[in-house]
Protein 1
Amino acid sequence: MSSPTFKSYLNIPYTSPATSLQTLDLHLPTLAPSYPSYTIIYIHGGAFRDPLITSKSILPSLPFLFPSTSISPTSKLPSISHDSHGSNESGQRENHIAAIVSVNYRLIPYPTHPTHPSTPDDEDRNAKWPDQVNDVRAAIEWLSSSSDSVDELGEERGRYSRLTSQSDIILVGHSVGATIAFAVALELGYRDDAERDDVEGSKHKIKAVVGIEGIYDFTALRDAHLDYRSVYEDFTNGAFGAEADGNWEKGNVVRMIADGMEMGRTAVVVLGQSREDEKTGVREQRMVKAWQRKFWLRS
């Protein structure tokens, strides 16, 4: 039987005091990664409100993300020759993942959920934008400043710090998780010079943002799929407030880009969609066009 390729630490609070959804799951490779290495932060979707979609939704993907073979652990992260497909000299697939962090965040109310309706006194399920953004930023700050002393890691605290000390961040978000991911990255890039220097000089930098089936313009999405109008309007109003008051623009990533918000030192932007998802086309097309106008990118 093959040895496990990663070890998981679940439900770690990233702020204090923390609600039950202000937690993250930390997944570490059992063997040291190749250099350069990256910490992947995954932000789940669920229309800002689905209580059944959590940080655990990434679990089925982990065996595919951590390769079954890697280099031997050392005190120094080594650099070895590899081909364009990420294989080392022996033909083994290299692991460049120092850690995968899957983040929970507070949800908006969902009193009509068929099995898990929210209640007005639930501190985890009465959030409003930008509470979700603030939660993910708190998780990033936890990675930079607090992780070395987290009791949940026990004897692994030193190894975690060693694995991630030389790694930068790749933000990955699915659906509204992509909305949150880009809002976090754009916000960090839009600070004044003094604040930006502080962020970019920290232990971790956001080097890439990956949006999977992301929502970047809620009005355009609703207008392109009027047969789902009531569903889209229900959760979007719940997250941002009434459309009539212009509140939906708070989460409009396309508008943020058009208004001049920049990604700071983010090196790579990746937009992913499935051809089998008929509702993603308008989201990706508007996002790509906005980025092309702003940064002269090619699709």
Protein 2
Amino acid sequence: MSVPDSVDVLIVGGGPSGLSAALCLSRACYKTAIFDSGNYRNEQAHHMHMFPTWDHKDPDAYRLAARKELEERYPHYVNFVNLAVTAVGRNDEGKPGIGGFYAVDAEGGTWQGRKLLLASGVTDILPEIPGYKECWITGIFHCPFCHGYEDRGADSVGVLAIDLMAAMPPITDGIVRNVLQFTKRVVVYTNGATEVEEKLKPLLAKKTEVEFDNRAIEGLRKEPVGAAVTIQFKDKSEATHGFLMHSPKMEMNLAYVKGLELQKSPMGMELQVSQPWQETTEPGCFAVGDTGTMGKIIVAGVAYGTFAAMGIVKQLQAD
């Protein structure tokens, strides 16, 4: 079957939300081009959770199964482009009567679509602490619902109240309370920022299992057993925990967007969208998954991918 360069919907991102949207659009007999760079936020994780029938299974296997389903059942409506996108924008300027959107892939191919769906996710901005990157996912967990259960019963857990978690005490408070389900002792590390302790202590005053430690951190070391991580301090002392919790800053993967009027949410970690159809502030452009929802979990990405597809169908049928 020949591959068209003009489709109904351009989908940037081959993760769960983009695949979900493509499935819904295929069911309505609309053609899509799904651009998949092969880079995923959870590519270091070996297990996904909180997804019925897929709990504690490989996210790669999920993506492959969803893609296979689309290719085998809806071959006339889905077109997978195994390339990153270098540019997307509107066709309006200088091209009267064309309308819609364009996408340019990494090999210079140009694609046309009546609607645009952004599902390219976010990138975690890891703090510049020696050893942090090596411990990420294997010993440092960002979400106590996604990780932690398998390591329940640890003697202690460390929580890094730095950067985003230092700036947003309610987030840190919630994570600490969740982690107490897995251990009887939690130590909150502020990396020398005593003012962070002052903000957090009133929130956790009733939690006698919680301690605060303001020592400056020198580095982190992944231990060979389980998820254990050792924190190395600048005073040459050390502390080892069953695992660490830290939610880093995030940055949306939208460098390829050209000239679209996209506004961010108040927190700035996802695009502002209208509910329930996930349309951005640029008419005809939708955002799903980590790009368009505050709840950055797979099951939410799948759900909102479907809602966005339904909203797109309504617009396509109204054109």
Protein 3
Amino acid sequence: MLTLVENIKAVPLTCHGHSRPITHLSFSSVLDDDQYYLISACKDNNPMLRDGVTGDWIGTFIGHKGAVWQARLSSDATLAATGSADFSAKIWDTHTGECLHTLTHGHIVRAVSFPSQSRPQLVATGGFEKKLRIFDLSRSSSSNSTSSSPSSPNGSGPSSPSPGFEIGSGIHAGNIKSVIWSTDLNILITAADDKYIRWWDLRARAPAAKHELEGMPGTCELDSTSSTTSLSVAAGKSAYFFSGTEPGLLLKKITTSKEIGAVALHAGSRKFVTGGAGDTWVRVYNFDDETELEVQKGHHGPIWTVGFSPDGKLYATGSEDGTVKLWKFCSDPYGLWR
């Protein structure tokens, strides 16, 4: 049997279809049939849904009129949320491709997040307005902005939810680049260009904790491979790993010799993966002794997003080169790797 390190050298699967740089990737949870899904955001305006195991294209969500900066699936993969440079966030039905809601904003939307619930009725957004907002999707108001859908090119369609309520007005001093809904549904996490990670208590509508980074934040994501979740943040040449349950608790900071655009932790294997912001390489590190274990080559541009599948058996990377790649991270045959 091959060892994990040997097996990581398996040829990655390359997912084509996008025509501009990939900005964000997100997996669903594992569903009842051991299936899971992957959504990609791209500057070509058109987020794509894929089979998470094989990378096969399932569909494209058509409707945004600007670059899509972030895309996330609900845990049960029934809904998708996207944030765009067209000053909107959209909520999509993943089975039909229909746009269910368009949430208008006053500036570019960089971040979207669902709580970890089946068919969630809340979504959080953030972006260049420097405002963290929560929208209730169950409360529609025809007096607000209308939604557009593939079948309604003129913008007439389902009514939009009531305007979102803001959390922590005036506190963010920089653009919000990431929003994460914690496993504790009363906690939201933001990463902003003011170089702070903040944990927000929704009951108090105020920060519960904050941590200053030494560089501008890249990715900010929860570890999806373990029940003891952790938060991984890329900033400058460092990867920060925070507790997923205790706001503000820094578990470890690891500084590398390279600029890091993205980072993802596989807690079970005690390894983490980074994407290069200044080169085109994917690197695998040992979490405990911080040694570099592998360098993966294949992309032709900086890597802005990386994430492990929910079963931890592969990870996905998205690059400036417009491709998504899936890399095997287990010793047994898996998916298309036989």
Protein 4
Amino acid sequence: MSAEITEPLSKVDSAVDSTEPASPTEAKARHRRASSTVSGVYNINDLEKEGKEISIAPETQRLGWKLNTSPATLDEKEVLKKLLVEPPVKRIDLHFPLGLEVTARNLKGVTIKDALDAIYKQFKKKADDELGENPVLAGFEWDKEESWTRLIVHQKKEGAPSSSGKKSKKNKDEA
């Protein structure tokens, strides 16, 4: 064996602080991905600091959606794609009157579907009689005096009468 080393060592001792990473993936891990942040989508806490008012999409009041049914069963698919609040936020807390709180998240802006999915996740295993007196979503309310960062969820006894014949037959069978 010769005492001279002809090739540079490829492995580095962990006790030695190296200025250059051992692999290219380690160099990338230090930087946050730029693609996961979308311009024009705010953090709800930043809006509170700036004092920017938010407005809720009025379509949420007309859905007539039962909390323990999948949002995918709604007839109005276009409504689900709309933003829940304007200006768009990355996440928002949804507060139920009895104290339950769920969080809807979407880095591209929370949509109505994101909010309904978050609520559905909490109620999907509950039977109709376990939902209480008001099993249907009536809409959301934003009360900046109470809490700037969350919406209050309102519920009602029955869903709005639907225009499609198939849906109304289902409602008659359930009653």
